[in-house]
UniProtKB/TrEMBL annotation:
Organism annotation: Sphingomonas corticis
Start and end residues of each stretch annotated as Disordered: 655-731
Lineage: superkingdom: Bacteria
Protein name: Integrase catalytic domain-containing protein
Length: 731
């Protein structure tokens, strides 16, 4: 019997000394001190029979029988204790025990010989007694022998005893209690500052016990890894809060990870940015390592389709987010050849119902959210102090990284996979344009490759199937661009509006109308002598600082005001403007006149090209981004929109940005509890009658893009109308 019960073993049963002489199968031969055999009454008649192994193990677990030499030891060892487990407990301890039992019972029931040919012939039969792999014939012989020793043929005979049970420790009980106590102390408010201190306390306790002559503490003290693993095993929300506070526990364990699922395409779309790991050279003509590229992409949550997004240099900024949103909400810009070859790609666009952006404020400033809510139905802002885990979007980023991982010039951090002699800047040879093209091709491969979580379909197939049953919503590109703005407070005078070191005064008729209509709203303490002064709100765009939309609350319309320095501000992004201003403050020289500012811009660009090779690699990113923006403006001179683009846009469901012809009601982003209570207590009808809505409300009537603008000059800019004779006639 192979469960650790040797012949001659001395036992004690309820104070009676016994001796195990041997066994015959499952029956035990036990005698007392006088040599009389131990017999047990069974059945109604009380027939006396010798004890079996089940009786011995049951009495041992109940504490009635124990080893005379080791009273605390369990009889039969680990194998004997497993015999008391039922079928469910055996499956939980060793899932393959049921598989072994089915094979062995099938061989026993058929009376298969234990010879090798017979066993191999039985194992090769179809159908197999149990699903899955087929066992080796020697293993099956051992399983049959183990079951034949047990008259009950129990599964517990085939449960493996390798390893230890979950939660059981290999440490001596006394030392295990010390380790657990020090680990629990670490997670208390007055715990040790680091895990090595807790390990040192454990070793100190072990040394004291060893000096006192304790014999049940093991030969060596617990290692640091042992204490560290026990501390990590005790970490949960409650222990983390006890050590670090409730606020830190909420940050660590708050339920903010994956957003809710989606039932149809374009119901929920995520937006995130990625920084690539390769150093790219400036161009084919200038093999200078310029910067690392970045990208911003939107992804449909149901289909995992990645929409067109920009690949650029420089920091994350609002204008690149606007380009990613346009790639999501408008048809992709395809040539006639691309449109003829890939017609389906032109259908992959639409306005989502919910937008889930990243928590990086450089991507989507909070001031852009009100205008974005007028386009989509709902914008889910990320929770503060939490990271939003968008697993599908991060999987896309890993796919893009893997697609270009073999390219030269890959920048790796310190680690075992990096060769310290490798210089990625010296090995860089891929230009910015080539790298951007490769990333876009990798995005197309992602969209067209079948995915397991989509049932073997590709993201493009799922998106097109969803759009075939549920048409996407569409909006003119001009309307989308107009609402991707920020609302700011400005001061209007007879000299126009000055914002961000730029003056907007063109369209003087609108300036005069706004001053005449709103001057009475200004308090006397804020009025100026000799000129008008009114505090109003305006819409500004980070993608173009050449114009702003001034809101007139009395007339309830917007007036477009253009910059007085068009040669400098035309097509200039706000980030570029801030970079030029930073160079001015750094002592680059310049002036405040339009001509001087234009000369400064040209001179700074030339200086940037000259100084680029002398700059450190990390410092080149902003300079390359400035030069890249100039290249884009030059290349966009002949850029147009085909008739197919307008046809694709007209095929979508027309959507009004103000919410007039929309089934989905635009909702503001989540607010604080006090703001929600204040909004619930207000009478909506009364508040609307008492004061006009905010400039970001969807019910605002928006004037035409050319509202208040007279016919312009040959370049399309408004001309001065102060000397117009019609002014006298209207007066």
């Amino acid at each position: 019997m192979s469960i650790g019960l040797p012949a001659g073993m001395r036992l004690v049963h309820k104070g009676r000394a016994l001796t195990l002489l041997g066994s015959s199968g499952w029956t035990l031969d036990i005698v007392d001190e006088e040599g009389a055999p131990l017999l047990l009454p069974i059945g109604p008649a009380g027939t006396l029979v010798p004890p079996d192994l089940d009786w011995l193990l049951t009495e041992n677990r109940a504490g009635h029988v124990h080893d005379a030499d080791e009273p605390r030891a369990l009889l039969g060892g680990a194998k004997g204790q497993l015999l008391g487990l039922d079928r469910e407990a055996c499956a939980a301890r060793d899932p393959k025990s049921l598989w072994r039992h089915e094979w062995a019972m099938a061989a026993i029931s058929e009376g298969v010989s234990r010879s090798e040919p017979a066993m191999r012939e039985f194992i090769g039969r179809d159908p197999a007694p149990a699903p899955g792999e087929r066992p080796q014939w020697r293993s099956l012989v051992r399983w049959i022998a183990a079951l034949r020793r047990d008259p009950h043929r129990r599964v517990s005979n085939l449960v493996t005893t390798a390893g230890r049970e979950r939660g059981a420790s290999q440490l001596p009980p006394r030392i295990n209690a010390i380790v657990h106590r020090m680990a629990a102390h670490y997670w208390s408010e007055a715990g040790d500052p680091c895990k090595s201190d807790a390990a040192s306390r454990v070793i100190e306790e072990w040394d004291k016990l060893a000096a006192a002559g304790a014999t049940d503490i093991g030969a060596e003290p617990p290692s640091f890894e042992c204490v560290r693993n026990r501390i990590n095993a005790l970490q949960n929300r409650r222990s983390f809060a006890a050590r670090n506070g409730d606020f830190a526990a909420e940050q660590m364990y708050g339920a903010v990870g994956e957003p809710v699922g989606a039932k149809h395409v374009l119901e929920r779309v995520t937006l995130d940015g990625v920084v690539f790991k390769h150093a790219c050279v400036y161009s084919d003509d200038w093999k200078l390592p310029a910067a690392r590229m970045k990208g911003v992409f939107a992804m449909d949550w149901l289909s995992s389709f990645a929409f067109e997004g920009p690949v650029f240099t420089g920091p994350f900024r609002p204008e690149v987010t606007e380009r990613a949103l346009l790639g999501l909400m408008t048809p992709p810009r395809l040539t006639e050849e691309q449109l003829a070859a890939e017609t389906q790609r032109a259908l992959c666009f639409g306005i989502p119902s919910q937008l889930h952006p990243d928590n990086e404020k450089a991507l989507l400033p909070p001031s852009m959210v009100p205008g974005l809510v007028n386009i989509v139905s709902y914008v889910e802002l990320p929770e503060a102090y939490h990271s939003d885990a968008k697993a599908k979007h991060e999987r896309l980023h890993r796919f893009l990284h893997a697609a270009v991982s073999r390219l030269p010039g890959r920048i790796l951090g310190p680690g075992p996979g990096r060769d310290p002699r490798y210089d990625p800047l010296a090995d860089a040879e891929i230009t910015r344009a080539q790298f951007s093209f490769m990333i876009q091709e990798a995005r197309h491969a992602w969209n067209e490759r079948p995915k397991k979580w989509l049932g073997g379909r590709s993201p493009m197939q799922v998106l097109l199937e969803g759009l075939a049953t549920r048409r996407s919503r569409g909006m003119p590109t001009e309307e989308i661009e107009r609402h991707l703005c920020r609302t700011v407070n400005v001061v209007l005078t007879t000299n126009g509006v000055e914002f961000d070191n730029l003056r907007y005064r063109w369209n003087e008729r609108a300036v005069g109308k706004a001053l005449d209509a709103n001057l009475r709203r200004e308090p006397f303490a804020k009025r100026l002598k000799g000129t008008g002064r009114v505090e109003l709100t305006a819409r500004v765009w980070d993608s173009d600082v050449d114009y702003i939309d001034l809101y007139d609350p009395e007339r309830r319309e917007y007036h477009r005001l253009y910059s007085t320095d068009p040669d400098y501000s035309a097509g200039l992004t706000r980030w570029e403007h801030h970079e030029y201003q930073r160079m001015l403050r750094a002592g680059k020289g310049g002036g405040t006149k339009p001509a001087d500012r234009l000369r400064l811009r040209s001179r700074l660009l030339k200086a940037a090209e000259t100084a680029l090779p002398k700059q450190a690699f990390r410092a080149r990113s902003a300079t390359v981004a400035l030069l890249e923006q100039e290249e884009m403006r030059e290349a966009a001179g002949a850029f147009g929109r085909s008739a197919a683009y307008d046809e694709m846009l007209a095929a979508a469901i027309p959507t009004e940005p103000s919410g007039g012809l929309r089934e989905d009601e635009p909702r503001a982003p989540p607010q604080t509890a006090s703001a929600r209570r204040a909004h619930a207590d207000d009478d909506v009808d009364a508040s609307d009658a008492a004061s006009p809505p905010l400039p970001t409300d969807p019910d605002y009537p928006v004037a035409d893009r050319g509202a208040g603008i007279e016919e312009g000059d040959a370049e399309g800019r408004p001309v001065s109308i102060w000397d117009d004779d019609r002014m006298d006639e209207e007066d």
